[in-house]
Amino acid sequence: MMAPFTAAMSGRGAVLLTLLFAALLAAPWIVNDYLLTVLIIILYFAYAGQAWNIMMGFAGQLSLGHAIYLGLGGYVAAMLFTLYGVAPWLGLLAAIPVAAACGAVIGFLAFRFRVAGVYFAILTIAFAEFARIGFDNWNFVNASSGLFLPVRQYAHDDLWRLRGDPTMFYYVILCATAVVFLLCHFLLKSRIGYFWLAIREDEQAARATGIDTFRYKMIAVMISAAVTSFAGVFYAFFYNNLFPEQVFSIVRSIEIILGPIIGGVGTLFGPILGAFVLTGLAEALNSAMTAFGVDLPGAKQVFYGICLLIVIVALPEGVWPPLARLLGVKWSGR
Known about the structure:
With 334 residues, the protein is mostly helical. It contains 14 helices and 2 strands, in the order αααααβααααβααααα. It has helices at 12-26, 33-58, 67-84, 88-112, 118-136, 166-189, 191-201, 203-208, 213-239, 244-247, 250-263, 270-291, 299-314, 320-327; strands at 147-148, 241-242. The protein has a two-stranded antiparallel sheet with strand order 1-2.
């Protein structure tokens, strides 16, 4: 049974969290452009990992096709910007309900007909693959040729249109990650968080106590999908292109979930720590291979597999729970 680690941090934990946030705020003034880009990627996966953690870590619903919400969010905002000049923040207002509606359809089909466990995971993969194939053949979004966002030089950063240098994007994703962290903390400490815990640990027992499991699982799926949609919007405007084979692929979904698994599923800080560990080490590996002139196709995927194997065997709770105990951070259960 998954240990119910919730982030009721106080004292030393709050101090460490404050120091980390202060260090991240100061990072653009300290690191070079390459390291800043790496930090952006890390925070991007930390954000997306937290969004996935709401569904799996909090409510116990395993989604292996989570890239569908990322792709939908990115394409909705990008198309509105490309065709009509709609700013991404306004595009996000359209991307969120689209992703949430997709999550509601998947959740309704699964939960109404009692599709659970591995079968629910397969259903999410099927929907993500359906979206990938559909967008790959949909000429309105340039199909497999990819959707490219218009880029022009700006004298100053344009936050409203998300046009600017990496520093601006860094602070955007840092703020987004912090906001989702606080949202997750609020959800866990609310009544709905306790219902999710009951469903995650024993759904039949939760149903027997009078909890409307269908309703609260639907809420978890829709919140997770809505939050994930922003990751797609950020991805589109940071990279300025979208390809169905990239944003909807099973590989993208796996990249999203690896951080929480490495850091600790069901914990607040686990997805963030997992993103730092996994992405940071992967970039260090790439840099070392480049420095020594080594070219090994698939080395990154092999590295991810090794990290996952080590965590499953040696740290089944993830990296964060034992690290928290080592640092003397106070944790409380429900």
